[in-house]
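Quick one, tokens below. Sequence please?
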């Protein structure tokens, strides 16, 4: 649909995309619906929207154009080939029923100008345009949303990579190396001879990994001598090992453990307020009983 240029065009939004295109078109229709020389309608200028239309094989200036019934009638009024077009319509459908539908549509829109044949052609053009425009607009919008989602995902992925690279560089600069610092695994520590505070013991100093101090030193030495050298690591210093060996009871339990068993269990912190409250209740009952006894005395 070609419309003549108008002297003073309407100023639209700077960014016209598929989401606000229809609202801009409605604004343009309300402004210039009754004009015989309207300005050019709003056109898409968003790169993503134009890319979405290209992917959908849609011409936005033709397939997404929106005109009112009156604007379609303005395009037909005064045309010289109205009779020829009406004869072509009569060959494909019932001209009488089609004319009645067109007249009712113009009556509902409160449009009285134009002949019945001109209204018929304008109504057919309006229906043909509105039959495909909403579906094509919805398809293009969906493609545009997919483009936005892909751009958002790519931007966040790039930000994540940049932040990871920045952390790597900061770690390298902090440790004075060219690469990131990596924590050594336990296998590498054992292969290197073990950490400084864990040294392999000799057979005479062998300590079982479980239940340390649960058997006499003599049985431990015998078991270690029979089994041969051991590579078990212990986390106790020699002085601490001597203290543990001296504290072992012949029956398998240290003297300090027996002393702990004879002591009463400690009072839990949460039980102290309860005990104080009970003591206060007993004290108040005793004082109340004393006052009653004093009143009863002769």
């Amino acid at each position: 649909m070609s419309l003549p240029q108008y002297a003073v065009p309407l100023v639209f939004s700077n960014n016209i995309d598929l989401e606000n295109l229809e609202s801009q078109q409605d604004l343009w229709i309300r402004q210039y619906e009754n004009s015989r020389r309207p300005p050019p309608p709003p056109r898409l200028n968003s790169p993503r929207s134009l890319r979405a239309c290209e992917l959908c094989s849609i011409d936005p200036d033709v397939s997404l154009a929106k005109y009112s019934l009156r604007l379609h009638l303005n395009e037909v009024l005064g045309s010289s080939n109205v009779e020829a077009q009406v004869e072509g319509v009569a060959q494909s459908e019932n001209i009488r029923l089609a004319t009645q539908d067109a007249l009712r549509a113009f009556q509902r829109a409160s449009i009285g100008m134009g002949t019945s044949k001109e209204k018929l052609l304008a109504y057919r053009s309006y229906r043909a345009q509105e039959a495909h425009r909403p579906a094509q607009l919805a398809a293009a919008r969906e493609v545009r949303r997919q483009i936005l989602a892909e751009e958002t995902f790519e931007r966040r992925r790039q930000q994540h990579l940049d932040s990871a690279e920045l952390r790597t560089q900061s770690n390298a600069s902090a440790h004075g190396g060219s690469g990131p610092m990596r924590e050594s695994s336990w296998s590498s520590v054992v292969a290197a001879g073990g950490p400084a505070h864990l040294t392999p013991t000799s057979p005479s100093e062998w300590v079982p990994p479980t239940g340390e101090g649960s058997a006499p030193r003599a049985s431990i030495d015998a078991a270690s001598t029979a089994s041969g050298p051991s590579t078990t690591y212990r986390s106790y210093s020699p002085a601490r090992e001597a203290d543990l060996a001296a504290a072992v009871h012949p029956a398998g339990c240290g003297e300090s453990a027996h002393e702990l068993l004879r002591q009463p269990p400690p009072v839990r912190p949460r039980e102290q307020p309860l005990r104080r409250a009970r003591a206060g209740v007993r004290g108040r009952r005793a004082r109340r009983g004393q006052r009653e006894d004093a009143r009863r005395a002769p």
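The first strand starts at residue 199 and ends at 200. The mean pLDDT is 74.
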